[in-house]
Every structure is written in structure tokens, then in C-alpha cells.
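Memo to structure team: turn this sequence into C-alpha cells by end of day. - J.P.
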Amino acid sequence: MRNLGSPKIDLSRFFSESYVHQINGRSVSPQELINSVSMISMKINSNNVEYVEYLTTEGLSKEDRVSYIGTIRDKLGSDIFEMSTCNRVLYVGFGVTSQELESCVLETTSMKEAPFNHFTGLDVWRHLVKVCSGLDSFIIGELQVMSQFRGSVALHRKYDLVSDINSSFFDHVISANRIIRREFGFNQTTESMLNLATSALEEAVSSKETTSSVVLGFGDMGCKAIEVLLSLGQTNIHVITRSPEKAEARNPELASNVNIMTFDEWKSSTIEPNLIISTIRNNKPTFDQSNPVPSSNSAMIMDFSWPPSIDKSGISPEQELFGMEHWIRVAHRLGVEWDYASTIEQSEQLITDIQKKFMSALTDRSQAKFRSFMYQTLENMSREWEKSEYIENSVEQMGAFSREIATWICNQEEPFTKVDLQNMMMSTKRPINPNLLQKLAKDVNETVDRISKMSTFPGDNS
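Reply from structure team:
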């Protein structure tokens, strides 16, 4: 029979597997976590606008949104993450397929179908990184979506819609986003929806000698619009909100510079604004044919809401409506200044590089853990060798030699034999008694052989 040689020892599995975390008493492999992630997403276009408008949660109160997401999670029997922005809706599921996720969303919303795009595993991570970094926005590099993403993650964590284990997936998305924004300088870009609105307001006001303005909503976008108008010297500003008391309490200083009233009060007023700015959110238009805008005089109407808060049927012939379709077109024109195609091409390579480093980090952590274990094991053995009857004048050599052995073992990327390990030890130039060397080689080979037969090395419980 042909000599097949000595049996080989293979320790590579201890550091080629993904690092395992213990979270709330449960072992979790990051690689396993990523592989189990699925996502369905829909970015608005002319073919799916009705679906996005129906599915978005932007017009819901926080309580209604939490209830809605909770219903999907309970039906699915798995964690769920939902995010809606002005131009997209997306759902992320854990431990389920994207088909199962879509079926559950459709059932919950009583829809028969919807043109979702499907993603699985690392493709989910890549797509979320693009979304959060503004690489998949109307305006490339816009900042608002990252704030929305962080807010969504915080909401899901606060109301236990996603466990700590699964929500850690989003931390990796946020980490990659930071690198991309820093690389492309997106943190300094002015091409965001907010800045686009600012530019549009400045242009609208500068083209008129006097301006009477109505701002619908007193949220972040509404307040920003008011600040811009005030900075342009406008004093005739009316704010329409559902609750003037809450609005005034939210921002007393800004509220003191405007006239705040309810929607009903606006209807009965004699205000004739030539600029109307809407930032309110509802599932359907607040103003349409059945409930037209109270003012019918000539005016420019800027609707920054999504879904739209003002329908064309709700305005008079003398009024001009600039809705989301207009802002999308303007945004794309501004995007050319960024050399859109080149930036997207560069971003794909950057995301791939980040992905490789991220996956390597999972392995590196396991390698570091294994190396630490091996060095500690050999160091403990060296203390016993120092007590040997053959130690003579080699006491000081034991610690250094144990580290040398551990280094050789940890650097073996391929399987090795006991003979290989013994030859390495016996060929040392260190002044060690040959009898002691034989004992060391025997001890180390027995220990390494025992370790290689373990399912995991001792102490692997972090």
C-alpha cells in the first residue's frame, strides 16, 4: 500500500468561520445574520407612483405607524423594518425570504400585487448603503435620507419592532455610509431637498416687490421655509397648522414672528397670499376638487409634501402648482453637476471595497481570538516546562520559545502534520536540553491534536 504520510492537523476552521457574538444569551454569526436578511423596495417612478403613495407611512402618526409595522411583524412571525421617504418605500425582513415578506405586506395592506424589487443577503446591505448615502436619491448625495434612516432605526428599537441582534445589521449600514459621505464630500453638499427648496423660495420672493405667504405645517420643513422667508425680509407670513398651541410651544421664537391659525380659520379669513408653501403630510391630498385651496387669487404654490398635499383639481386657474414631479426634474438637472454617472461608478467600487473589509473583519476577529487562545495555552505550558528536571539553565527560554511555537502554529494556513511541528521545535537554535525538547514536542503535539478535534476551542463564548 502506498504511504499516505502522517495524518494532518487542520486548525484553519477555528479562524475561517465568522466571529460569533453572544447577545442576550444567543449565539449569532454576523455572516449568518447577513445571509438571512431580505428586502423588498420600491422607488417612485411614473409606473408605480400609485403603489408608493398607497404604501407610504409618511402620512401616519407615530402610533399608527408602529401599529402598522407591528401587525406585519406579527403576521410574518419575524422582525421587520420599514422606512418610507418622499420617493420610496422599503421593508427589511430577518429569517424570511423576500417572497414571504412581500406576501405578508400585500396581505396586511389588502393589495393583490405591487412592483417591488427584491434583495437578499449582502445585496440588501449594498442597497441600503446606497439609499442612506444619497447615491439612490433624486439629488445625489442629499443628506435628509440618512436622518430618516437613523430615525427609523431608533423607532424600531424603541418599540421592540427589531431585536438588538437584528438591528446591529443597520449599524454596519451606517458605518459604511460614513465612509462614502467622507470620500465623496457629501457632508458638505448643498444639493438636498431642503436646500433646493431654499433656493426656490429665494427666487420666488426676489421676483416680487411684496409677498404675502402662507406656510402649511410647522414641522422641520415648515420651520425652515419660515426661516428663509424671514431672512429675505418677509413679514407677512401666515402659518396654517392643526394645533396652533402645540406649534407655538414647539418653537416660541419663530412663532412670535408669524401669524398662526387653524385650517378652518384660514378658510374663513380674507388672506390673499401670492405664495403658498405646503409641508404637511397625509395619505391623500388635503386640498382637491372637493376641498379646494381657500385662496383663489393668483399665486405660486410649492408643494414639498409626499404624498402630495395639494392636487391640481384643488387650485384655481390663476394659480401655478409646483409639486414633487417638478422637484424631481429640477433635482436631476442639479445632479448633472456632480457628474452623476462617474460618481455612481466610483461608488460601486468603493462599496465593494468596504464590503470586502467588512467581511474580512468578521474573519480577522476570529483569527485574533484563536491566536489569543493559542498564545495563552502555550504560555501556560511554558510555566510547567520551567519545573522540568531537564530545565538546567533554560528557564528564561521557555516563555520566548512558547511564543515562537504559537506563532508558527497560527501562521499555518494549510494543514500540517505532527512531524512538521516536531521538526520545527527540534531545529531551534535556543540552548535547550535535547531531552527537554523531546518532552516539549510531545506535549505540544498532544495539545494541538486535542484542540484540532474540538468543535470549538475552550472559552469560545464571547
